[in-house]
Amino acid sequence: MMEEEEEPYGIDREHAHPRALELAPEDFFWDCVDELGPFGSDEGDTALSEFREWRKENPTMPAVDCLVWTIESVGEMEVEEYNDSLLSESKIAAQIADKDFDDVQYIYTLDTSVIATGFAQLVDEGRIDPDCKRFIQRAIERLTTWSKLTDSVMPTTHVKEYHAKLQVLERILQEA
């Protein structure tokens, strides 16, 4: 009887698709503790794990269905509401200022989860489905604006580094 191979947990190069390794050679992408990377935060790690669980249960479904589930569950909104109107700097500033709006949950956690879910497909399958790209791009853009306007999650000293890493993710997204 053959021993069942243990499934990988978390992000690592050893189990990654070769195309992901080619498109994302940067160390931060593969770092499980770099909070500014796609999988280094608790949110990113959870999204990676949940994508893998979802994929096991839905092997033939388009990955965009997982992204929709992520947006609707983490963001507590209909996917149609996750549109370009969310990118307005004045809207994001108003949300940050609104004491009844949890911007850490509904911007940072949601967008980090969207990014990690989308890039999880690249890591495991070597591609990002075209239908997923607009959601991931929106998340990158919104986090870029949000992080300029607040210091609730990271000190302002890390914002430049975070923006540089988001730009790398944007490049990878375009090439995937």
Share of helix, binned: 55-70%
Q: Would you tell me the overall average pLDDT? A: 94
Biggest sheet details: none
| Spatial gap, N to C terminus | 39 Å
Low-confidence stretches: none
Topology overview:
Blueprint: H1 18-23, H2 42-57, H3 63-74, H4 89-97, H5 103-125, H6 130-149, H7 159-175
Helix pairs in contact: 2-5, 3-5, 4-6, 5-6, 6-7
Keywords:
single chain; about 180 residues; mainly alpha; about 60% helix; globular
What's the gist of this structure?
With 176 residues, the protein is mainly alpha-helical. The chain is built from 7 helices and no strands. Helix 4 crosses helix 6 and helix 5 packs antiparallel against helix 6.
Describe this structure in words.
Helices cover 59% and strands 0% of the residues. The protein is mostly helical. The chain has one domain. The radius of gyration is 16 Å and the shape is globular.
